[in-house]
Amino acid sequence: MKLLSNIAFYLLVGVIVLISVFPFYYAVLTSFETGTAIFQVNYLPVSFDFANYWSVLGARNFPRSILNSVFIATLTVAFALVLAVTAAYALSRVRFKGRGAVLLGILAVSMFPQIAVLSGLFELVRFLGIFNTPWAMIMSYTIFTLPFTVWVLTTFMRELPVELEEAAIVDGASPWVIITQVFLPLLWPAIVTTGLLAFIGAWNEFLFALTFTASETTRTVPVAIALLSGASEFEIPWGTIMAASVIVTVPIVALVLIFQRKIVSGLTAGSVKG
Amino acid sequence: MAIAAESLMAAPERGISELRRQRQRAAMRFLLPMIVALLVVAAWPLMRTIYFSFTNTTLSNLDGGEWVGLGNYLNWRTLSSGRVIYRGVLADPQWWNAVWNTVCFTVISVSLETVFGVVVALVLNAEFRGRALVRAAVLIPWAIPTIVSAKMWGWMLNDQFGIINDMALSLGLISQKIAWTANPDTAMAAVIMVDVWKTTPFVALLTLAALQTVPREVYEATRIDGINPIKVFFRVTLPLIRPAILVAVIFRTLDALRMFDLVYVLTPNSAATRTMSTLARENLIDFDKFGYGSAQSTLLFLIIAIFVVAYLKLGRLDLSGEARR
Q1: pLDDT-derived band of residue B317, with 50, 70 and 90 as boundaries?
Q2: Which of B1, B119, B158 is opposite residue A162, by nearest beta carbon?
Q3: CATH class of the domain whose range is A60-267
Q4: What is the ipTM of this complex?
Q5: Residue of A28, A115, A131 to mutate when probing chain B, most B C-beta within 10 A
Q6: Which residues of chain A form CATH 1.10.3720.10?
Q7: Which helix (H) or strand (E) holds A244?
Q8: What residues have CB less than 8 Å from B247, skipping those under 6 apart?
Q9: CB-CB neighbors (< 8 A) of A263 in chain B
Q10: Residue B56 falls within a domain, yes or no?
């Protein structure tokens, strides 16, 4: 009986792992296949042909898209973190009238459907003359990176021992000194986690990037992959698409696996405790 | 633990009121940049979207829109024959189709994600060899960008060369190849399947974090008493982790209601899967009906706002962390 339930348990574990990993495994498999090999269903690797990778990386626009994505995601996250660290200090350590209202507002913005601001942002982007430039994305991504980073950092900062701050206050430290000299060194792990999660969010964003870009050179990676087309309309270049997918996914998966424990704590802090 | 500082800061009579005011002024200065940023990128665009929804603005002429009142939402005109013709989003069968699709997608995918997520969390909470590896594997679907998973599954679900058809055929589940994403009967199932695959890890991780706070002694005690594990789960474990599951469900529901990218890439232009977000963007950008699309965006915003307000009321959220003090 015990043996039987053990077998059933490991069977379940096996199924979970297989379902989780197989699609990506199959994408990697396909990315190494060219010509007719692609159109035969293989469960095991049959070829190691880098041709798809060379064709993606050799194409003029795909490396450009990667650069665009790195630039946009980095700047978005840096901007959000700078604003969020000070805001989170105010929201977590200082008691003032309207604190609940500000937190409620931040929570409400993080729940916005992106499509609801699309027309207004489109007008703003046109008005500022940043349509089809990275700045359109850097500005619009703030709508989801900023509330998220503020929320998570506020949760983290609440947990820091109050004695630290008391000692600093007694020594006559100003709030700015308290943030930069006392809290920042303790917050690094939280900042790295939050920044990483915000980076992933910005890296994966699709709706704004699709709407605010108009040429191949300004596309971000998700848009480039979604619109990757072959020589003709009916010929979908699956091999190249899979190679491009693997290139942009491997760094993200690696980061997530390296930081997995921290990410779990970040996700739990980001979701509101009822 | 926080009581000392709060009472320190809340005691004006001990000559600390000046310090307290200084801290509050600093707090305002710290908050201002963030509030300005959110007003510019969130509040202002939202107001403009709502304004556009009352105009007949077109994409090619953003400033040339005229006020049409509620015309985009509903308007009617009586023909000479006496028949009344209704127009506007609320009389648009495409809109109601999108609402229906979105609701179906949300209810089915969130339910499945919750059930599978809890099962995966229970498995990961058990002690067995290789648990760390299994947890890493489970995280992979969550880490893959949505567009990439849409393309990956689009390839696996391909009618001619897809591996899913090959598997199903050799297992005898289907008798002929199915065009999963193109066929209106299976397109929604395909979208739900990919979404469940991608977001079950999120539910599983949040549930697992809650499961790990349940003291081991609880399980020890029930095991000694010889209680059926299934009974233990429903009577003991589930009530303890219910708040965490609820949070995961709410976050997933909000995400599902605004679903855009997966549908856009996996089943483009399919009426069977068109959601509120994809329909609104189609009108805004592709069909040059900026005002009409804005009305649809505004309606989606209202639906989600009602949902959020209900959640905040029902959840009685501890927003400022006061309850911990």
Answers
A1: low
A2: B1
A3: mainly alpha
A4: 0.89
A5: A115
A6: 60-267
A7: helix A238-258
A8: A271, A272, A273, A274, B206
A9: 139
A10: no
